[in-house]
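Incident log, structure service

09:12 report received: a user says their structure output differs between two submissions of the same chain.
09:20 pulled the input from the user's history:
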Amino acid sequence: MELQPFHSDIIIEPFRIRSVEPIRFTTMDERRQLLEKAGYNPFLLKAKDVLIDLLTDSGTGAMSSAQWAGMIASDESYAGSSSFYKLESAVQEITGFKHLIPTHQGRAAENILFTTIAKDGDVIPSNTHFDTTRAHVEHAGAEARDLVIDEGRQPRSLYPFKGNMNLDKLEQTIQEVGADRIPVIMITVTNNSGGGQPVSMENIKEVSNIARTHNIPFFIDACRFAENAWFIKSREEGYADKTPLEIAQEMFSYADGCTMSAKKDGMANIGGFLALNSDEWASQCRNLEILTEGFPTYGGMAGYDMEAVATGLYEALDEDYLRYRIRSIAYLGDKLTEAGVPIVQPTGGHAVYLDAAEILPHISSRQYPAWSFNNTLYLLGGVRGVEIGTVMFGMQPNGTEQPAAMELVRLAFPRRMYTQSHVDYLAEVIISAYEQREMLGGYEIVSAPQVLRHFSAKLKPID
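09:34 re-ran on a clean worker, output below:
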């Protein structure tokens, strides 16, 4: 009798743990005091007071033994470091772009790019600009215009590529403002502000065709390029037999450049880069890099950072890792959906997004329902997420406030860090908060800066 192949639905981490970091348990009374002291802003909590920290997946993951080995062997030369050329080789193989401009993180790449190419009166279309991208565009005097498809703002829609750009709206924007006022078209993969939703290869190709027709450069915000490649492999016809690397290479082949926070799919704790083909733009950007970041062969990174990113870019494309990564997110989404908790569906690549507008319909957008539910998760279980709603996106450049398109709580998973038991506990906290949702109230802002106010605002509960 022949043995039958074994199959398991259990999520098994494709790594072994050799180093551990303790986490601190607090009481609900302690957390209530800590949250009040932080002005009811989870950003202002001390990390030691957080049990499960899902504020961001940016730079918070665990690095591999290969990355640590590379860091020990790094070259810290000021100019011409061999670690730079290792990073350059990795970026060029994966993206195909000619020029590499290393930066300390993604927002520095955004700052260099938009300071160089954007000016007052310009319009920069994207599927959805994230917070720092939008801030850098607006700081340069341009308008950051979001053109995601309608399904991208429908949390319950099961459309497989809800991060896609609306092609008709893109054409309308070009006709409205003129190609000469659009220095670049951007597309974010995956679409962070819209629930971590992927962008299809077909959509990337169509956006590229429109950009080339109108002679407009096309750039990709590539923070989570590997996760997007996995969704294309698993959801888009014709890509099932291609490797994530091959898919990523095709994605980048349709663009003229990219910005990258290597703290996401670079699998590193710090680092980023700007990569592009234009010799003229590269020369201008390098001049600004020297002024704001450092010499072009290290930019804002030490040699050991460049080593970690050069290795991490390939590790992020590993199929076993990506299968585990995406399935872990879906596992939490499945448990919440079974309990009736409204989330953005289908689950994205790096986070589960709770639909606070549906969870708390009695709290208006002006009283920040996502902020309220996020704080409740900390009070109940020491869990820290982040609001992606009207606090983050409501303030307009003219000083007025408008409701955000969606009121979401993002629970972003650091890479290779939490186990399934952490996720089971997390699900229990969220479900408990959901069951007590009618008891929750809104918040009002006590003080806040004009730009990127969610990072440092102080709020208070509304009785």
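09:41 both user submissions now match this output. Likely a transient worker issue. Closing.
09:42 reviewer note: Residues 65-315 form a domain with the Aspartate Aminotransferase; domain 2 fold (CATH 3.40.640.10). Residues 319-338 form the longest helix (20 residues).
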